[in-house]
Specification:
alpha/beta; homodimer
C-alpha cells in the first residue's frame, strides 16, 4: 500500500476543461487507491462529480483565471479562483500537492506566492522531463524565471538533480549547462559566470550542453535560465510536431505509401508516444512547499490522469523535504 | 550571363578539409561559369588544384586557426591564416566574398575585424536560412552576438528582411521576435524592450514567435540575441537528427518494416533533404563589407559547393549595398 496522499486539482485548467479534467481525475482515482482529490472549480461542475466518486471532495470556487490575464496580478486579485484556492489548500495542509493544466504563469505565481518558497530557495524553477526515445532528460528552468542571476542555476541544478534521482532513479545525474559551445569560455556573460559557479559548487556538473545535445542522452539534467529553457522546450515540440505531420502527409500520399505506412505503424506509434509530452504528466515547480505540477494547456484526459498521478508520486518521493534539506 | 564574381575560399575549413573543399570548389566552378575562386591554404594543397582548374587562383598561406582557439585572439595573431587572408582579399577588393566551413567564431571575428563593419551597423549578425518543408525562415542572430542590447535587434530585423527579400523573394517579410509567449508583455526584460523597439521601428514586425512557431510558417524572419538563436538552431538540428535516426532504426527492425521502408523511401528522402542544412549553403554574416558566409563544420563536398555558390549569389544580389543604404 502506498502512502495516502491528497492532491487539489484545478477543474478549470486547460483548453478542454472541465470535461477532460473530470475524466482524468476519475481515471487517476481508479488507478491509485491511496489517492484523494479535492476538486476546485464552479459548484455545478465539482459537486456532482465529487458526489459520485469515492475519495473526491468538492471545493466550490467562484473565480477563474484566464490564459490572457497577467499571472501575478490575477493571483493577487482573484483569491477565490480555482488556482489560488488549490494552492491555498496545500499551504493549509488539507492537500499535499496541486495540479493544474491551466495558465502556467498563474500556477507558477500561485505556487510561489500562495504555497510559498522553501526557506533558502532563491527562486523556484519549473522543471520538465523531456520525453526522448534515447534517454529522458530533466530540463530546468523552462519558464518560471525569464530573467535569472547566474547563481540561481546552482540551486536549479541541485533541485533538478534530486528530481532526476527520485523520478528517473539516477544516483548521480550528469548535469549540463545549456550553452552555445562546449568550452567553458564560450557563451554569453551569463553562461560563462554560471559555468564557473556550477563547476565550483555542483559536484555532478559535467560541462556545457549545446542545443543539439539536449536529446542526445549525454546529460540527465540540463539547467538554464527560464527564457532559454522555454525556447528550447517549445522548439523541440515544434520540430517534432512538424516532422510527424510531414511524415503523415508522405504516408497518405499514394496507395503504395499507405501500404508502407501500415507496415511501420506500430514502430512509429511507439516513437510518437516516446516523444509525447502527455506521457510525462506535467512539469513540477521545484522549490515550493508542496507539489505544484503544471500540465500542458492542450492536455487530454490521459495527460490529466498522468499529471495527477505524478503529483502524488512527487509528494510520496519526499522531494519537498530533500530540497528543504539542501537549501538549509 | 551572370555578373562576374570572385570568392575567396578557406581550403582548411571544416572537419573534412581540404579534400571536400577542393571537390566542392571544383563543382561550384563547373556550375557557375562566371565565378572565380581564390583558394587560400597551404601551398601544397592550393597550388596543384589551381594549376589544374580554370578560374581558380591559389593564395598560399602559412597558418591555420583551429576550432579550439579563442576566435578573436587567433584572428589578431594569425595574420597569415587562411581565414584572415580570405577576408583580407575581400577588404582589398581582390574578391567580393569569402566562404569557409571552418571555425565559426574565427570567421565571424575575421569578417568583423578584417573585412570591417558597414558604416552605421552596430553589430553584424549571423543569419541562417532554416530549412523547413513548410516554409523556409531566416533566423538571426544565430551566434555572432551572445550578448545583445535590445536595440541591436532592430538592425537584425532590417538586415534579415533584406536577406529574406533577396534570397526568398518575399516582398514584405513577416518579422517575429523569438520570445516565450505571444503577448507583448511576456518574456525577459530584454525581450520586452526589444518588442517595443521592433513595434516602433520595424513596419513589417508581426509580433512574438514562440519556439514552436519557428518552423510553423507564420514568420519569414525571426530575430533574437545570438545566444537564444544558437540554442534554437542547434535544438532543431538535434531533434530532427534524433527523430530520423529513430525512424531509421524502426525501419530496419524487421523484414516487414524493411518492405514498408522501401515504399516510403522517396518521400522520406525528400523530407530529409528539405530539413538538411547542407542545402542552404551556409550562414551569412550580415552587416560586413562583403559576403562572409560560414558553412557547417561537418560540410561535405555538396555543402561546400552550395556555400560557394551562395556566396556568389549574395554578392550579385546587392545585399551589401542595400544594408549600407538602410544603415546610412
Amino acid at each position: 500500500m502506498a502512502e495516502k496522499v491528497t492532491i487539489s486539482v484545478d477543474a478549470l485548467g486547460g483548453d478542454n476543461a472541465p470535461q477532460v479534467v473530470l475524466d482524468g481525475v476519475a481515471e487517476a482515482l481508479a488507478e491509485d487507491g491511496d489517492l484523494s482529490v479535492i476538486l476546485c472549480g464552479p459548484a455545478e461542475v465539482v459537486e456532482p462529480f465529487a458526489a459520485s466518486h469515492d475519495r473526491c471532495v468538492a471545493r466550490a470556487t467562484t473565480e477563474e483565471i484566464s490564459m490572457a490575464e497577467h499571472p501575478a496580478n490575477a493571483v493577487r486579485k482573484k483569491k477565490d479562483s480555482s488556482i489560488v484556492v488549490g494552492c491555498r489548500l496545500v499551504k493549509e495542509g488539507e492537500a499535499q500537492g496541486f495540479f493544474s493544466a491551466g495558465s502556467t504563469g498563474a500556477c507558477l505565481a500561485a505556487g510561489t506566492l500562495v504555497m510559498g518558497r522553501i526557506k533558502g530557495i532563491a527562486r523556484p524553477a519549473l522543471a520538465t522531463l523531456l520525453p526522448s526515445p534515447v534517454k529522458p532528460v530533466v530540463l530546468c528552468d523552462v519558464g518560471a524565471n525569464a530573467d535569472c542571476k547566474p547563481e540561481y542555476l546552482v540551486q536549479f541544478a541541485e533541485m533538478a538533480s534530486i528530481y532526476a534521482n527520485k523520478i528517473l532513479g539516477i544516483a548521480e545525474p550528469r548535469v549540463g549547462l545549456l550553452n552555445i559551445g562546449e568550452e567553458e569560455e564560450k557563451g554569453s556573460q551569463f553562461a560563462q559566470e554560471a559555468h564557473q559557479l556550477l563547476k565550483e559548487k555542483v559536484p555532478n556538473f559535467a560541462g556545457n550542453a549545446e542545443g543539439r545535445d539536449v536529446l542526445g542522452g549525454e546529460f540527465d539534467v540540463i539547467v538554464c535560465d527560464g527564457f532559454t529553457g522555454n525556447v528550447c522546450l517549445k522548439t523541440i515540440e515544434g520540430t517534432a510536431k512538424m516532422l510527424f505531420k510531414q511524415i503523415k502527409g508522405i504516408m497518405m500520399s499514394s496507395f503504395k505509401t499507405k501500404i508502407g505506412a501500415l507496415m511501420l505503424k506500430d514502430g512509429l506509434k511507439g516513437l510518437a508516444a516516446s516523444v509525447d509530452p502527455d506521457e510525462a504528466g506535467g512539469a513540477p515547480l521545484l522549490g515550493v512547499k508542496g507539489a505544484c505540477i503544471v500540465g500542458h494547456g492542450s492536455s487530454g484526459a490521459r495527460a490529466i490522469k498522468n499529471g495527477v498521478l505524478a503529483s502524488a508520486r512527487y509528494v510520496r518521493s519526499g522531494m519537498t523535504e530533500e530540497i528543504a534539506a539542501i537549501a538549509k
